[in-house]
Amino acid sequence: MTKQRLVILGAGESGVGTALLGKKKGYEVFVSDKGKIKEKYKQVLIHNEIEWEDEKHSEEKILNANTVMKSPGIPDKVDLIKQIRTKGIKVVSEIEFASKYTDAIIVGITGSNGKTTTASLTHHIIKQELNVGLGGNIGDSFAKQVLEHDFKNYVLEISSFQLDDIIDFKPHIAVITNITPDHLDRYDYQFENYIASKFRIAINQTKHDYLIYDADDEVITNHLKEYPVQSTLLPFSLKKTIKNGAYLDKEKIIITIDNNQIIMPTTNLALEGKHNIKNAMAASTVAHLLKIRKQTIRESLENFQGVEHRLEQVLKINKVQYINDSKATNVNATYYALESMDTPTVWIVGGTDKGNDYEELFQFVNEKVKAIICLGVDNEKLMNTFGNMVDIIIETQFMSEAVKIAYKIAEAGDNVLLSPACASFDLFENYEDRGRQFKNAVRNL
């Protein structure tokens, strides 16, 4: 019997993890990357005798595949992907491929914002009592973990791009944190397409599975009315009383599942801000479903350290607090950041604009922002949008310069906030690179 041929496009964390799992499961594996493969990944492929190429895609080696696993970064409109689909070759994402080889309980978390914090927080709570891995869009490759650890449970942070390439993937517990316009460049600038993509997380769920979601988010609630899902619904809300799910009553989170109720005080939550109460509700609801003890949930919420590049307090210099929120790659994420500022703020913003509408930020900019530093290749839209709202608006293309300017403008008691509201690819490798450059520049002041 001839071996099934698995071709992997993109040799990053998920690609190389899938290659290792595929080889172990008896596939003939070929890895192809249009860019240069990082040395550490190249060494893994060589060591495991997996055939690879970089800086090109050889069609004759790709179009004879049975299955193609493509990196979530590759859009469907690329010619090669169109050819693959025309030939009827199955295209899957890493989570689709890897989930076939595990019987674990999967918690899948998606949303425009808050998914990394919610996934990290959920994992932090569950790992106190259960055997659990954290993967997907975060940390180690899910496929590699299935191969090496075979955890009994997984918490996966899942992007819409990963959900676009699922067929049978079904998390037992799905979470949608919120849905706001993002990545519309990949969805023909149709918000509906992006919403539908997020809801694919529940597409294969049955009534024995659960969907946890923000009931205050009209985009989600309207979509559910129009396109009901099979799953058992467990909403969470800051505004209304919820019979089955979670809600806020004064300063307490109340979670009810099948008449089994737990109550959590929010006064000592490690993470600040309203949006983090929602993240805590989602994570606690998952933990409650998985029968984690109330005491464990409460302690975990109080000692969770947060996520790097997400409202991360870097240093205080001359009574000015420097905050790294480089992970804010869309307007809604920056909305949460500005909302949580309680002193005058010097705001560093900009990057690759994905069709942003900045209007929802106006109230905070008027109220809290004393100066804006635009950090991008093309800052025209930002300059036009905010130019009349603040006394000082400056543009630069260097992080070190942006931080030096902020240092000159900020006075004792102010915040300097990097919260770009844009993707990072114009000047940086990714949002992590942008955040680290910011932290280094602050440390070098």
Automatic annotation (TrEMBL):
Say if the entry is tagged with keyword Acyltransferase. Answer: no
Q: What is this protein called?
A: UDP-N-acetylmuramoylalanine--D-glutamate ligase
Location of this chain's protein in the cell = Cytoplasm
Pathway, per Swiss-Prot/TrEMBL?
Cell wall biogenesis; peptidoglycan biosynthesis
Question: Is the keyword tRNA-binding assigned to this protein?
Answer: no
Q: Which GO terms describe its molecular function?
A: UDP-N-acetylmuramoylalanine-D-glutamate ligase activity
Key words, A-Z = ATP-binding, Cell cycle, Cell division, Cell shape, Cell wall biogenesis/degradation, Cytoplasm, Ligase, Nucleotide-binding, Peptidoglycan synthesis
Q: Where is the Mur ligase central domain?
A: 109-287
Catalysed reactions, as listed in the record: UDP-N-acetyl-alpha-D-muramoyl-L-alanine + D-glutamate + ATP = UDP-N-acetyl-alpha-D-muramoyl-L-alanyl-D-glutamate + ADP + phosphate + H(+)
Family that this chain belongs to: Belongs to the MurCDEF family.
For the ligand (ATP), the binding residues are: G111, S112, N113, G114, K115, T116, T117
Q: What does this protein do?
A: Cell wall formation. Catalyzes the addition of glutamate to the nucleotide precursor UDP-N-acetylmuramoyl-L-alanine (UMA).
Q: Which HAMAP family match?
A: MurD (MF_00639)
- The Mur ligase C-terminal domain covers 309-422
* Chief localisation class: cytoplasm
Q: What Pfam families does this protein's entry cite?
A: Mur_ligase_C (PF02875), Mur_ligase_M (PF08245), MurD_N (PF21377)
Source organism per UniProt: Jejuia spongiicola
Entries under PANTHER family matching the protein: UDP-N-ACETYLMURAMOYLALANINE--D-GLUTAMATE LIGASE
EC numbers for this chain: 6.3.2.9
